[in-house]
């Protein structure tokens, strides 16, 4: 059964629930543990949406889509290539992406996010699906000019770690098969990215398995699967929307 999970503030309390039609049903317990539907429904206008999980870490993939690798003339990697996005970068749905004081070109990257539901440490690929809770939409925002500004050191973490540079949500979709999904990115209403998840070089299960050999993944952690062709820059006042059918649409302004 597919469910769309949210996390939000309601009457000064942190709560979670599921989106059901145009209403939110409150749940009790833990999203990643014993959760029970309460039968109480809320109007979405009465809650403040938060990121659907509170990750201990967000890992972001590089060169994980065949089309983009071919465009950039990159050889397929032998293992996942990834960086970490700092917790200060996490941004709620509908939050404002802020331009860094350092200035320069800021780009959007629409991506599928894997949400971990159960601690994964050195898991086999055949078991990795049991550790995936669901999937979400994400924008791996990047200060492009900073990345290779110093020829002695590629600044991946800094370029992708500014405050507000990791919007994700608004929901986590559980019970969904990611392989037939498409990621679409809209800039000011114009479609800029439209690519299939099936073009991933490392599947979600393989990513979870291989990364869990390096470090433990905890409930709520997020793996951003990487992006494909169509990445572009944002100007102040722009609105970027990441849409994945079956999951939802994430929208944020850039100021």
TrEMBL record:
Domain Fumarylacetoacetase-like C-terminal per the UniProt entry, residue ranges: 67-254
Gene Ontology molecular functions: acetylpyruvate hydrolase activity; metal ion binding
Family matches, as InterPro entries: Fumarylacetoacetase-like_C, Fumarylacetoacetase_C_sf, Rv2993c-like_N
Domain of life of the native organism: Bacteria
Keyword Hydrolase attributed: yes
Rv2993c-like N-terminal domain residues: 4-52
Keywords: Hydrolase, Metal-binding
Listed PANTHER family: ACYLPYRUVASE (PTHR11820), ACYLPYRUVASE FAHD1, MITOCHONDRIAL (PTHR11820:SF7)
Protein name (Swiss-Prot/TrEMBL): Fumarylacetoacetate (FAA) hydrolase family protein
């Amino acid at each position: 059964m597919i469910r769309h999970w949210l996390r939000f503030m309601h009457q000064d309390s942190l709560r979670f629930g599921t989106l059901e039609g145009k209403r939110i049903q409150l749940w009790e317990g833990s999203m990643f543990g014993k959760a029970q539907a309460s039968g109480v429904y809320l109007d979405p206008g009465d809650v403040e949406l938060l990121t659907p999980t509170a990750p201990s870490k967000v890992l972001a993939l590089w060169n994980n889509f065949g089309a983009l690798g071919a465009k950039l003339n990159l050889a397929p990697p032998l293992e996942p290539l990834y960086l970490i996005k700092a917790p200060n970068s996490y941004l709620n749905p509908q939050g404002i992406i802020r331009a860094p004081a350092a200035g320069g070109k800021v780009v959007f990257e629409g991506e599928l996010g894997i949400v971990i539901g159960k601690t994964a440490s050195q898991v086999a690929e055949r078991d990795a699906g049991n550790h995936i809770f669901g999937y979400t939409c994400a924008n791996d925002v990047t200060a492009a000019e900073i990345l290779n500004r110093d020829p002695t050191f590629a600044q991946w973490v800094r370029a992708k770690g500014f405050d507000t540079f990791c919007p994700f949500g608004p929901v986590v979709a559980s019970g969904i098969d990611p392989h037939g999904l498409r990621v679409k990115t809209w800039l000011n209403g114009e479609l800029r990215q439209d690519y299939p998840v099936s073009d991933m070089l490392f599947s979600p299960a393989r990513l979870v398995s291989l990364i869990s050999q390096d470090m433990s993944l905890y409930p709520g952690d997020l793996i951003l699967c990487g992006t494909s062709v169509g990445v572009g820059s944002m100007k102040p006042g722009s609105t970027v929307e990441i849409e994945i059918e079956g999951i939802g649409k994430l929208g944020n302004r850039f100021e």
